[in-house]
Amino acid sequence: MSDRRPSYRPTHKRLVWQQAQELLSSAGHGRGAKFALKSSISRDLVNLKVINLFCSKNLVRIPDLSNATNLGKIYLNRCSKLSELPPSLQHLEKLTHLDFSYCKNIRSLPSLYKAISLTQLDLSGCSNLLSFPEVSLNVTKLWLDGTAIEEVPSSIECLSNLRVFNLCGCKRLKSLPTSIHKLKSLEKFNLRDCSRLETFPKILDTMERLRDLDLSGTALKELPSSIDNFISLGYLRLNNYLSGTNLESLPTTIKQFPWLQELILWNCKRLKSLPELPPSLGHLDADSCTSLEEVTSIKKLFEQALFCQDEPYRCLKLIFTNCFQLNEKGVGNHGTPKLETPFKQMVNVLKDYHQASPQRNKFITCVPGSEIPEWFDFKSLGSSINIQLPSEWWINFPSFVASVVVSFPECYNGRNFGIRCECHLKSYNGDSQDLTCSFSIWGVGLLTHEDRMFEWDHMFLLYDDFKVWEFVESQASSKCIYNEASFKFYPLLYGSNTSLRNISLEIKQCGVHLLFAN
């Protein structure tokens, strides 16, 4: 690399890798060479606004940046050999974004307390970072995922503007300060896979803005008794949470969360029952809760969701994959699976719902099982079924509930699994109409890269009145008389619109249950 000084004009406002090659000094040659930004360039950086040297794997240090008074953003993520950071960072009053993620040689940071404009600091993946950084009081987003910190200082309460606080995968973290409740702006708090975190501090005051809390994979012995103070909680994830405790149920106060939309309970092995749930809940996922045997509360949840007037369109998902106790025959229940009765009650609620002023609703549930519910009107082996429609069936705004049984290969990873339903209507005079609905078992907040292993046949219930409602409105004016309907179901890679015809998944049975207002 040439020793000549680069022709770098002060009017430049960005420093990226292509420009930076002439601004580096090197030690050694070849692949093992190490690089550093030349300190001689620091006086030329007055107008520099952005440094972006991500993935500069041989960069070991950066120079004094005191003269870069207009510098606003620094991206040095994945500079795996970077270990030295200049103290001058704290004097950069216009610095707003600082990204050192996956710089695995960084062990500590200089104080950033005086970097008054700093709002976003990303240190995720800095696996050798031992101490909690001293940061500007104006930070709004702080990522410390996968760092080696053991505690969060009580001074965290001073970060009154903090909205996102991510400690995911901090394996050494053992405790949180009681002052955490003073983070009044906090909206998202991620403690996922903090496997040594055994206690959660008592929340002494309401945290009105906290919407998203992830306690999955922690070592907490019980749910925080003061969780009621998270009054705006919308997403609660407790994956692998109850597996190592004797806790067999969730607190009954969970029904008091008026904004809770998503409750994720993967692998909560000791969970036996569900309490009454808030009507706002749109997605309940209890994958592999192998002790779960009582879910009668879902009937009320279903009823509340249908008749909710606050939202013009609701999509309710109740997912019980690998909850094998729910497929057992109930005592005194005439030998039917434990979910058979609440499912039938839910369909009866649908009939009542059609007599009210209808909202647009969509519903999917799944549970281990190899048979269509016995009370379905029409059933068939395989993935398709043909039915004859009653005369003038559209008058009372009809709809239908569909059911399919899917046979999965052993330990099938269904992370993006869904089902596509195609309905083909035919009339006496040859007219036809097609309706198509797709159903995903994933929620809004749940990442689709997480594995979901189907361990046996599963039965799905499917309902979507939106397409039917649109059709019936147009049907009333067209005077077409459709007398026959054929249904075809396909496994789907949800999000790709690709059916799985060539993968070893089989729809063993399907069924349709017609709904009429009267």
Structure summarized in a few sentences:
This protein has a domain at 369-515. 8% of the residues lie in helices and 26% in strands.
Task: Report on this structure.
This protein has helices at residues 17-20, 297-306, 340-353, 465-478, and strands at residues 14-16, 24-27, 34-37, 50-52, 59-61, 73-75, 97-99, 120-122, 141-143, 164-166, 188-190, 212-214, 235-237, 262-264, 283-285, 313-319, 360-368, 378-381, 384-388, 399-407, 412-413, 417-427, 432-440, 453-454, 458-464, 482-493, 498-499, 506-515. It has 518 residues and is mainly β. The chain contains 4 helices and 28 strands. The longest helix has 14 residues, at 340-353. Helix 2 (297-306) runs parallel beside helix 3 (340-353).
Task: Provide the fold topology.
Elements: E1 14-16, H1 17-20, E2 24-27, E3 34-37, E4 50-52, E5 59-61, E6 73-75, E7 97-99, E8 120-122, E9 141-143, E10 164-166, E11 188-190, E12 212-214, E13 235-237, E14 262-264, E15 283-285, H2 297-306, E16 313-319, H3 340-353, E17 360-368, E18 378-381, E19 384-388, E20 399-407, E21 412-413, E22 417-427, E23 432-440, E24 453-454, E25 458-464, H4 465-478, E26 482-493, E27 498-499, E28 506-515
Parallel strand pairs: 1-4, 3-5, 4-6, 6-7, 7-8, 8-9, 9-10, 10-11, 11-12, 12-13, 13-14, 14-15, 15-16, 16-17
Antiparallel strand pairs: 2-3, 17-25, 18-28, 19-26, 20-25, 20-28, 21-24, 22-23, 22-26, 26-27
Helix pairs in contact: 2-3
